Amino acid sequence: MGTRALLLALGPAAALGLGRFAYALALPLMLQAWGLSYAQGGLLGSANTLGYLLGALVSHRLLGRVGYRKGFFLALFLQVPLLGLTGAFGYAPALALRLLQGVLGAWVFVGGAALLMALGGSGRALGAYYGGVGLGLLLSPWLFLGVRDPLEAWVRLGLGAGVLGLLALPALPLLQEPPPPARGEGNLRPIGRLLLAYGLYGAGYIGYMTFVTTAVESWTLLFTLLGASALLTGVVWGPWVERVGGRRGLFHVLLVLFLGSLPPLAQKLPALSALLFGLSFLGVITALTQAFRALLPPSAWPGAMGLSTAAFALGQALGPAVAGFFAEMAGQGEGALWAASALLLLALLSLWPRG
User: Which keywords, in A-to-Z order, does the entry hold (predicted)?
Assistant: First the structure.
């Protein structure tokens, strides 16, 4: 199980760690080279997450038809040329390419999670899979060393994603398809509050990830710490959510994440902010997945993953634009970070225990 989880984790490392979050490192280059505003930078982030939303909405049906194993690897490799071309043609084409990469990124993320759940992965294994995003974050600053323009930055990201995809290929014969949906596969109403919290979390955390490099100076150290601490997701949060349950674990993870996102901490103690944020932002989905397993029958898990990813993506599609708007109003990146923290606080409050 451990080997399969680690190999599958290279998928989110490429599709999210490099394909999505490294955009925060490319953003300053694009702002300068293309003369973009903070709002335009936020729209580029929103285009990617809108694609993620569209991909998530059809992921369960599409991956069920073509097969989760085939769909996972096809999406993983199709995104490589999209990344490489993002910096080649200017702002308008970059919007379209970010949209398409978001679609493929959703199929990679949902497909890999469903494949791991079909294998009966534990909380630790799920945490290791989601923590794979941290590997992409850890590699990103090193791929950007010496980069001076957007074209070179995106070509390097595309090449890095391709290498990670090749390294993940040995997992293919070790995987099995999730069970097909069954009639009456379960009422999804029990996960309603979880979906609301997950959507708000998506809006808040992507606001932090997109604009934190505009508010702090030591972004190389920041991303290195984010990636290194995210790799510990399975070790730290896997055993905890197995012990306290997915619902309570989700509340605990969001609390740590909110504290780590606060702008005063990010600006005065960026290393601590990156440590707390990196350690927790993937623990959210680890706890959420555990909650699904407790509340829903196995045949409903892939559908719940697709629906939750859609809720998450909807929040992500709105988050960068909202954060960019507040950054524009404040005239500095700090405004975006305050907006991100406020959204994470709302996610936390939506899970406040009743009674």
Answer: Membrane, Transmembrane, Transmembrane helix
Distance CA 217, CA 242 (A): 38
Let me know if 173 is exposed, middle or buried by CB neighbors in 10 A (0-12, 13-18, 19+): exposed
CA distance 90 to 93: 6
Which is nearest to 181 in space by CA: 310, 61, 311? 61
Single pTM value for the model: 0.79
**Which overall architecture, per CATH, does domain 2-169+189-350 show?**
Up-down Bundle (1.20)
**Which candidate, 254, 244, 269, 154, places its Cα nearest to that of 196?**
254
Q: What is the mean pLDDT of the chain?
A: 84
Q: 66-98 pLDDT, tens per residue?
A: 999 999 999 999 999 999 999 988 899 999 999
Domain boundaries, the chain: 2-169+189-350
Distance of CA 151 to the CA centre of its chain: 23
| Run means of pLDDT, 10 residues per run, the chain, 355 residues | 82 92 86 85 82 87 89 96 92 94 93 84 77 85 88 94 94 83 60 88 82 65 77 83 87 92 85 86 86 81 81 79 72 75 90 68
Give the CA distances from residue 10 to residues 76, 137, 161, 242, 295, in Å, rounded to whole numbers and listed in that order: 10, 12, 9, 24, 28
Which ranges constitute the DSSP H helices of the chain? 2-12, 23-34, 38-66, 68-85, 91-118, 123-130, 132-143, 150-168, 192-215, 219-230, 233-244, 246-261, 263-268, 270-280, 283-295, 301-330, 334-350
Residue 335 and residue 20: Cα distance in Å, rounded?
22
pLDDT in tens, 162-185: 999 999 999 988 888 887 765 555
Instruction: For residues 140 and 29, give the distance between their C-alpha atoms in angstroms, rounded to a whole number.
Output: 14
